[in-house]
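Handout for the seminar on molecular recognition.
Each group receives one record of this type.
Step one: identify the two inputs.
Step two: read the structure output and locate the region that could contact iron/sulfur cluster.
Step three: write two sentences on what you found, then compare them with the reference statements printed after the record.
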Amino acid sequence: MARYTAPSDYPVQHPILTGVLAQMVADAAREEGRRETAFPTLARYSDAGKCARAIGLTSLLDEGQIDDQADEDVAGQFRMWIGKILHEHVMGAIVATYGGEVEVPSYLGAYKGPTGDVMALEAGHADWVGVVASASDLGRITYELKTEGSFGFDKAIGVNRKTYTRDIPHGPRASTKIQGAMNAVANDADTLILGSIAMDAISVGLAEKLQMSAFDRICAEWRYSRAEFAPWAKDEMARAQFIAEQLNDGMLPDRVAIGDEMEPVALDPTKVQSDTGVPKQWQCAYCRLRRVCVEIGPGPVQLAGVRGVTC
Ligand code: SF4
């Protein structure tokens, strides 16, 4: 039998067709700018666990002073766009099946803002709030959905695609749990449900070996009672309150975020890459304030000395 000619498998350096949509999405995101908050606040629920320095700087700087992510991160914008489409379809399916409300806005806490006005500390939108008649013991539910790449999905459900084995499941990210908790508290929910949809399904072979169902290959869900989620929201609100007090005292908060185990993590934006080239400080790698943050330097610093900030 004749052999096929060996192909060249190196991708071209500049795709002219395949990246067209990604570029359009990034351009549209730049034009749209940042999404308006539900209420003017120090932070959003979606900032859950985010670096305190980043929250402080975002509240102080104009949009023009923050690096334009759409310019730099076409890949991130494209991934977000795909996730958003999926998200809208899932919410539509949930409402068609169970009723309930989507994109429910709420706010929590209060603080005196830079102008002296009293503002809410945190605000956001719950993906879905409602009751499932066939699971009425769950009471009023607040639901939060995330789409995940294979790394995040596998870690959450406890699967190792390389070794074809089960791992210990880590559940949704800490930031997702805290974000969901704040929505659940603000919407007076009895149960918080967090959902995850994989952007890359577990293979048929691995699912067969691990006795996973067809649904397990692409999605997972976790339920938390009020006794579990309410303390997460309380801790995050206390952290936001502390950030607000520091800003009101003329200080820019230190570079501290909340890690995977809900522990404080000190960040260093100059160490985004480790010696082996593996990203270490991933929060900083994705941060639009990295350039400004490196310029400012470490530690809580006096706002009066920060260029571009008027206080
Ligand atoms: S670069 Fe890192 S330390 Fe600096 S504000 Fe962003 S996340 Fe925080």
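Reference statements: DSSP finds ten helices and 13 strands in the chain. The mean pLDDT is 91.
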